[in-house]
Amino acid sequence: MIERQPGGPQIRLIDLIDAMRKLRGAVHPSDRGAGIVTDARGAALAVLTLDGTFVSANRSAAALLGYSSADLVGKHLTDMAPDDAHAELADELSRSAASQLHSFSAMLSGRTGHPAQLVLHQQSLPARQTGVSLLLTLFEEPLVFEPGPRDAAEALDASERTCQTYLMMGQQKERHRLAAELHDGLGQALTLIKLMNEDALMRIRRGEIDEAANLLDATVFRIRETIGDVRQICGELRPPMLDKLGLPAALASLCRRIERDMDTLSVEFNCDVDDDDVPEHLKADMFRVAQEAFNNVVKHAQATEIRLGLRHGADGLLLTIQDNGIGYENRPLTTEDAHTTGLGLIGMQHRVESHGGTFSIQSSATAGTLVSATWSL
Asked: Which of 142, 172, 189 is the last residue of a domain?
């Protein structure tokens, strides 16, 4: 969930995608598949004004800084810096405002008050509808490697160190995402259930049996909702349909569900691939790419038809999702839409390229959108 100021500036999706790709390439220009920027639930991302005020922030950024997304909106970045670092931080923000890409280190304190060294990567993002310029900001925790024996350090070549770095980054980002999910979702739900049970217990002791029974009925309903949240989080870690049905059957089930839930959408699935033909490490990513593409179509494309294809191509396995909607290039988005949709597209690209695949999007107002992903075998 992304929180933003009511009536906040609008951002074109194509501007956001372009900014994210430039930011990703600028952070690690030598590695196309580095994956430093993932989707909104992985990377700690926020949109700031030029003076450092939060316009919006995703859950990962909120968890990293110790706040909720709503608490960060309207807060100034300098509020989190030590007093003697305000001038330096303001100077770095001015440099970001004057350049397309800018990275710098800053000492920031979250809600706990404990300072931590963070690296901020900022990409200018013009909001063309309002004329207001914004800064798309990626917060990164610097990685510190423990020194080891000299001979072992010399044996670890540059490529191996790079892979280790990105693996640790991915683990850190996933921990932040899960922490945000557990804190904002399950933590608050369990706290409410605890308070409702305590209230019911006090009513029983006072002899208010009917009121206590009604409260316990409501508590049971809350518990069922929380169980559903737990299942959703587990499903995000590993879609259960993949293990039960295999990839082709899981994709077919996804198509049926979308068609059932959306009366105005017709979904066609064409597949000439068996589950055994798909490497195990690709199945979850292929399912997620299709799922995210479907979500974008349902939310934004105004389409009536979707065609999902999974087949053997000249270069390997080819996954395509095509719709007959309105495209995305010239459609203005609110800050909230831009985060949830644009970063989802960036997330799809990351999933594909992280395993050596290629990713492309073709979109127009007359022909709809075609999302294509190819994995070599």
From this structure: 142
Three-state SS annotation for 146-186: CCCCHHHHHHCCHHHHHHHHHHHHHHHHHHHHHHHHHHHHH
Residues 18 and 8 in one domain: yes
Q: pLDDT for 181-206, tens place per residue?
A: 676 677 778 888 988 999 999 999 99
Whole-angstrom distance, CA of residue 58 vs CA of residue 47:
9
213 and 308 fall within a common domain: no
What are the pLDDT digits (tens) for 265-317? 999 999 999 999 999 888 888 998 898 889 888 888 889 999 999 999 887 89
Range of the domain at 295: 246-375
- What is residue 221's DSSP assignment? H
Dmax (CA) of the chain: 75
Cβ-contact 118, 103 below 8 angstroms:
no
Which amino acid is located at 297 in the chain? V
- Per the CB < 8 A criterion, the answer to whether 200 and 212 are in contact is yes
Q: How many helices, marked H, and strands, marked E, lie in the chain?
A: 13, 13
How far apart (Å, rounded) are the C-alpha atoms in residues 323 and 303?
6
